[in-house]
Design goal:
The structure is a single chain. With 372 residues, the chain is an alpha+beta fold. It has 2 domains: 118 residues, Alpha-Beta Plaits; 171 residues, Heat Shock Protein 90, CATH 3.30.565. Helices cover 46% and strands 16% of the residues. A 5-stranded mixed beta sheet has the order 6-8-9-11-10, with helices on one face.
């Protein structure tokens, strides 16, 4: 047993690779099917550690379990056993990537420091996997922060570059400065409130007093997304009037809709049309719909695309963060968001949110149905 071999070894890094498919397969298809997968994973793990670890490092796997272990016990050249955390994470990442690549199965990975006097292998495995989950959540959170800050920063940069390179008329220049200023304010609010939407602090509740008038939100979304739409030759269509309000913070709703409209622009048809519609819905709710006329999302993919790290099938650039954040924010506000097929054949994203108890000011009509 690994515990016996590590007795007296002192403090050593313990790497853990877990393959959830083993347990799922055993429950669904029986032990024989699970054993076939276990043999594949064992072979992949053996190959991975042979590429990454040193000759005297220890590996272990108990048959019938979903965890594969490696203890880094080989002393360094200077006689010191301890590896730096960055080196341990690098080794773990390479092993996990190799196992995933060879088996085409998802793995959970983590590491901890093992000491024989601290409770045995099983608690150490649990600690390693919990630590790995926390590190993945932390990475996802900071990736989300970067992704969401890029949107207003790109908008500000685009309008400022236009001002620097194009004389323009005074009214247009004034409008561009105003948009850049408003985006800078939104950027500030995002920074101040980012931990409210942290992936480490989810909450299903919403504040009934929160108020987001759709007219103002849609105007901000149009300003933020127009430059990207023009770059792809996409026409943006917004409702003439949106005299309704949702019970959600206005910045959060702006963030949600910018992500959805930006997603439609990127994954929809070049030269196509993205349409936004909103209306009161039954049971004191507000429905907001974003349609495009691109290739759409296959029925089997419509739930998966809301998962962290997942991207649409079109190959457009993206981090796989935006739609995950959209769902998180909407559900935290007591609503829901779904993907479906648009009447034009593309993708449809429907956001349903609680309606605000406060009256929403009527929006000013936009010329030509706000086709941008």
């Amino acid at each position: 047993m690994l515990a016996d071999r590590l007795a007296g070894a002192g403090d050593v890094p313990l790497l853990v690779i877990r393959v959830p498919a083993l347990e799922r397969t055993a429950w669904r298809d029986g032990r024989r099917a699970a054993r076939a997968i276990e043999r594949r994973v064992t072979a992949a793990f053996t190959t991975a550690v042979a590429r990454v670890l040193r000759a005297d490092d220890l590996i272990a796997h108990d048959r019938g379990t979903d965890a594969f272990l490696a203890a880094l016990v080989t002393p360094m050249r200077d006689g010191q056993r301890g590896l730096a955390p960055v080196d341990v994470r690098s080794a773990l990442g390479r092993i996990a990537a190799t196992v995933e690549g060879l088996t085409q199965l998802d793995v959970d990975a983590g590491w901890t420091r093992y000491d024989a006097g601290e409770g045995g292998i099983a608690p150490a495995v649990d600690r390693a996997l919990a630590r790995g989950a926390q590190e993945r959540e932390r990475y996802a959170f900071f990736s989300a922060v970067g992704h969401e800050l890029r949107t207003p920063l790109s908008s500000i940069r685009g309008y400022l570059e236009t001002l620097l390179t194009d004389e323009g008329d005074p009214a247009t220049r004034r409008r561009f400065v105003g948009i850049a200023y408003n985006e800078s304010l939104r950027l500030t609010r995002l920074l101040e409130g980012m931990f409210e939407i942290s992936l480490l602090d989810l909450s299903p509740t919403y504040a009934p007093a929160a108020h987001a008038g759709l007219a103002g939100v849609l105007a901000a979304v149009a300003d933020a997304c127009t430059a990207r739409a023009r770059a792809r030759g996409v026409t943006l269509r917004f409702p003439d009037r949106a005299a309704v309000a949702a019970a959600i913070d206005a910045d959060r709703l702006t963030l949600v809709l910018i992500n959805l409209v930006d997603n439609a622009i990127k994954h929809g048809r070049a030269g196509g049309t993205v349409t936004v519609a909103c209306e009161p819905a039954p049971a004191r709710a507000v429905t907001i719909v974003v349609d495009d006329d691109g290739p759409g999302v296959a029925a089997a993919e419509r739930e998966r695309i809301f998962a962290l790290g997942e991207r649409g099938p079109t190959g457009a650039d993206g981090s796989g963060i935006g739609l995950a954040l959209v769902r998180m924010i909407v559900e935290r506000a007591g609503g829901r968001v779904d993907a479906d097929r648009a009447p034009q054949g593309g993708a449809r994203f429907t956001v349903v949110l609680p309606r605000s108890d406060f009256p929403a000011p009527a929006s000013k009509p936009r010329t030509g149905g706000q086709a941008l």
